[in-house]
Amino acid sequence: MSNISGASSGSSSTWRGRVVGVPTVCWCGAQIVGKISKSDPNPYRRYFRCAYAVSNKLMDDNHVFKWVDEALLNEVERLSSEAKTLEQMVKENEIVFDGVEYEKMVFDKGLMKVEKEVFEKVECVFREAKTNMKKMMILVIIGCMIIVGFVKLI
Ligand SMILES: [Zn+2]
């Protein structure tokens, strides 16, 4: 039996009708199946049911049973509360980053970036200059040696 994670398998006696949202797996490990009620008080009403309980035609057990409309209502409520939390977080962040502090931070960051770029460019120029200087020095030394050699020959 494949277990879908997310559903806690504890508190077996409180399962029936108390699952929040859409149930994915029963506490017994069985999958949840969608069924349509044929009972008189709830004709054609869809519900979620433990597959094990369905195949064994169990009645008044504590395996998962949940009306689909109630489950979906739970999901909608859960999602709307999540959306509210996100909205709240966004608002809090707006307060933190609002106004002068935020602008100063951006300005500082921009300044740091410019400084870094300038520094890198200067360093690059220096490095080039150094290698050029070395080349020049070598050429000068070779030139000197040649001159000295010629002088000695003469
Ligand atoms: Zn079950």
Automatic annotation (TrEMBL):
PROSITE patterns found in the cross-reference section: ZF_GRF (PS51999)
Domain of life where this protein originates: Eukaryota
InterPro entries: Znf_GRF
Span of domain GRF-type: 26-71
Keyword Coiled coil: yes
Keyword match Magnesium: no
Residue stretches spanning the membrane: 136-153
Protein name: GRF-type domain-containing protein
Coiled coil: 69-96
Keywords, comma-separated and alphabetical: Coiled coil, Membrane, Metal-binding, Transmembrane, Transmembrane helix, Zinc, Zinc-finger
GO molecular function, one term: zinc ion binding
